[in-house]
Structures
1.
Amino acid sequence: MEEYQGKATMEKITSLSKRRGFVYQSSEIYGGQNGAWDYGPLGVELKNRLAQCWWKEMTQLHDDIAGLDAAILMHPRTWEASGHVENFTDPLVDCKKCKSRFRADQIPEENITEKKCPDCGGELTDVRKFNLMFKTQIGAAEDTANLIYLRPETAQGIYVNYKNVIQSNRMKIPFGIAQIGKAFRNEIVTRNFIFRSCEFEQMEMQYFVKPGTDVEWYNEWKKRRWSYYEKLGLKMDHFRWRQHEKDEMAHYAKEAWDIEYLFPMGWRELEGIHNRTDYDLKRHSEYSGKDMQYIEQETNERYIPYIVETSAGLTRNLLMALCDAYDEETVGEGDVRTVMRFHPAIAPITVAVLPLMKKDGLAEMAEEIRKELMGDFATDYDHGGAIGRRYRRQDEAGTPFCVTVDYESKEDNTVTLRFRDSMEQVRVKRDELSERLRKEIKNYKRIL
Ligand code: GAP
């Protein structure tokens, strides 16, 4: 499938995100800050749930993986050792006339050879290497001795702690360390909403293995990461593998495959699986002077482990989830409803409780029911406007279940349970509601 078949466009996703409070432009009142985004009330819930699903998958379901939350600011030698100071660069050219800046590998080759700006035809500068790491100073004095970087990947925080984790948690190879956190890159081209930003979040897991077993583990992790996305109930025909060519591989990689997603703007990287060999640990050993070898207790054998990395963008996963869920459906006479078909495991709101009317005690009963559900589910309560419009609002927020309290509820203690995807409604006893919701969440299957 090469052509995008979904109903989403980046314009629709961007506008819905702002309208419904998924994502706002950063510092909007000052005209916005390029490359930075703010996650609103629904967005932060969606992001947290995506992070929780990943965390559960990688740590709770794996005895051999421990979690970590390392600092963003690391000793600057870290980035010399990792190769980022030297190699983490983009080739850039500037137009001397219109002052536009381009990535040399993203404009036609003849523009580079003829030094001609693709926008205005003005003269381009020579190609120069531009390091993507943000630099700042720590402490009061603004000199180079106080130079510090914002981390461009979370992975290095794991490598420098790998011996700590072995010691504190008595981990034995093969084992992994998982981390979710912010990363920063001075990206020059930040088009396509939150797809590529300067401040973003990653979900990375580094799996430490005995040299010689790395290929086997690499293939195993490829399989596991694919099945993770399957479990989230996503459109799997929008997923594919792409292997990196030798000349595009990161400086540390022996083998690299991307899981790509078919976004409205085309196939793009969602997650990378890398065989980083012993490159990082060897370099940290060299630069820190510390022994990074692992000692096998049974045999006393010593070696620097190989590392298989799974590296996913959390904020990019959020964009994928928005595009994947987005649907428009004609209902009734030409009425179009926008519905976000999130899996209940990631939906920002799981169940909304709505009184049919505000009066006659229905609002009070609905609020009570909401309180009963609150401890176990992410709930919302809405009493404003016609019931049909309230359903539409919840559809747009991606709420999989609505509970409506009506006059019958007062008589027989039953409520209407409405399903987002099919719009079907069933009657459920109030005291069986929690159990029914739990069952529906567990057995959820996407129908469209
Ligand atoms: N530790 C390896 C590493 O960082 P990467 O391929 O550069 O590898 C991994 O990044 C993932 O992080 C990407 O697949 C993408 O999802 C996300 N990512 C990278 N740069 C990003 C950016 N500027 N904005 C948003 N997400 C980004």
2.
Amino acid sequence: MRRALKLAAHGAGRVSPNPMVGCVIVKDGRVIGEGWHEYCGGLHAERNALAHCAEDPAGAKLYVTLEPCCHSGRTPPCTDAILECRIGRVFIGCLDPNPLVAGKGVQILRNAGIPVETGVCEDECRRINEVFFHFITHQTPFVVLKYAMTLDGKIASRTGDSRWVTGEAARTHVHETRNQLTGILVGVGTVLTDDPLLTCRIAGGRNPVRIICDSHARTPLDSQIIRTAREVPTIIAVTGWSDRAAALERAGAQILICAADAQGHVSLPDLMRQLGARQIDSVLLEGGSALAFSALDAGVVHKVQAYITPKLIGGADAKPPVGGAGFAKMADALPLYGLTVTPLGEDLLLEGDLVCSPASSKK
Ligand code: AOF
Ligand code: ZN
């Protein structure tokens, strides 16, 4: 199953909104076939592994990270392929929360007389698909709030200088995340001050869909994002149609009209619903501090990635990662669960979940 998990990870950033799945077929103690789900619409991991078998898989053991599907989607049911190939025994990492499967895949195999063991390396198998597990049940994106700050909690100096807070290893890690998640979201303030490109700049990487939360369509036509909007998909979330929105659309951006919240800003829960309807299963929220607080306050964030650099910059006016009004009492602070700490060069990456799931409590 550990090997199957490694294979599953090859699908990162390529299978959305499907899950990453790996499969290994073992006969007489030897691996005779392997495969993974390579891209959305492509063969599932089990069918790929069966297709790559070096010998007849009849009687073999099949290890798969996610319950085999039993429905016809873009591809035919994997349970059919397992039965046709006369697999002898099946080991499953975790059940598929897709209501079309959800235990029925296991039942079909057992009813056909195949011994099935579930929950093998279950935590790891669930964790690699935290995005899929969220998206298939809520139809809104899994949102990761990312920021880089100094040890005294600043994302920029008092003059606004932020190039660079963290070192190269941490910045490469951010690009790896951009390569894996489907969308990247910033507030228009970040576009106005930093003029970022928000692309993935690692070899062989692919760009996330860029989303700008821009209630009044203030994104400049000569910003880097709009100048590249014909090459990299770009969504501008506004609260109503305007001449400026029309000009941004003519420049190649897609305009998404969202409900307004009490302050007249884009309603983040509505934005998330609309992104989900467009099959955007995950979003990296990269700034700025006002949007970060609004997103936390609206309850649309699921995970936090804090890159911390051992430097002190000071400055009462230097921005913290999470601004906005803030919560009034320490008792209202949002706790993070399943915290992990990863050293990256001279910096640290702290990651935690905002929702306490069985997987995060065991990290
Ligand atoms: C598996 N093995 O490798 C994957 C599974 O429409 P489709 O054909 O792309 O199917 C997508 C659904 O199938 C997805 O929502 C999930 O329930 C399951 N994915 N199942 O047995 C795989 N990728
Ligand atoms: Zn399948």
3.
Amino acid sequence: MGAVSAFPLSRTVALSRTVAGLALGALVLSGCGSSLDESTGSGTEEDRSGGNVKIGLLVPLSGVYAPLGEDMKAGFELYLDQHDGKLGGRKVDLVTADEGESPQTGVPAAQKLVTQDQVTAVAGVVNSATALGLRDFFDESKKPLLVANAGADDITGARKSEYVWRTSFSNGGVSGALGQAVADEVKGGVYLIAADYAAGKEMVAGFRKTFEAAGGKVAGEKYTPFGKTQDFQPYLSAIRKSGADAVYAFYAGAEAVNFVKQYKQFGLADKTALYGTGFLTEGGALAAQGKAAIGVKTSLHYSTELDTPVNKEFAAAYRAEAGKAPTVYAVQGYDTAAVLDKALAEASGDSGDALVKALGKVGSIDSPRGAWKFDADHNPEQTYYLREVRADGDTAVNAVLGELG
Ligand code: PHB
């Protein structure tokens, strides 16, 4: 069992409720004047006159998702650099914390940002289980959380909160976007495989729903221990035995590298088409997979190959600063800074209530991914693209085949 699957969701949420309660108590007991004053919505003299604003950035800097966290941080920092280090006209004190690989590390790190560092808002969070574990803490402490990756469906669904906003995607949205296309292209059964934790389960469920509704047939389903699986051979053997005509997979970061490379080495790639959410072939993962990823088709709300002026300008600036091609994680970090820029300019004071009111008014974000805006549940309304990995000289890129309906 993987690190997170050994820590089931219900327990994660229950623990986070307890920890959220304790941390809230600490917040009140410590009598941290500014936070409590701020929660009245009036803001301090300094806030109103445009003093510095402290923002927490919670991203994985360790574990299988560390490369994702680095990209997200680089995207956020690029926006800051392009805006004189300011958001809403105020100099930003950015406090970065390591989310790690699971809620066991991510939840306390977020709580420290709020209770000890006393940030005005927290941005980041890559892992769905961590986002779910944090929901009650932010809801109860009335601090804004801007989820810049984690796709947990409930965060902007059944368990939505006034204080939780998402600038990325929902797991059901990004995976469901591909169902019809795969049902149209594949005649036989499709085998579903994913990392065994909240996001993997939801990606498979989201894909299965639209795929089966479009007449697709499932040939098998398997979840692999999250953060622990390096050798995918036993799973690849099971796929071969199932007689599936194609595979749908959710992996990201280091797991995506191993899965796609071994899929090719095992000889499956030539006979059994590989589909997935775009995280499977994104950024550093695609660079490491190289030619092994050619032909993999995915759904995502971004590609470096998007031929728009906004994306070209962004990609050139990111390449110049980060020394590599941008990724969806970088775009999500960049857009989160853009959202905060607009909201902080609009908000009257630093209270969570003032900021979430302003978040409701940010309108359309002119993003490298294409224009998007928050829906009524605080989730992006955006375009998903069908992408295919193709060779481009010595490298591989996610060519955009079209928009998914
Ligand atoms: C998630 O846990 O929600 C997650 C993690 C990595 C991704 C996408 C989603 O690339």
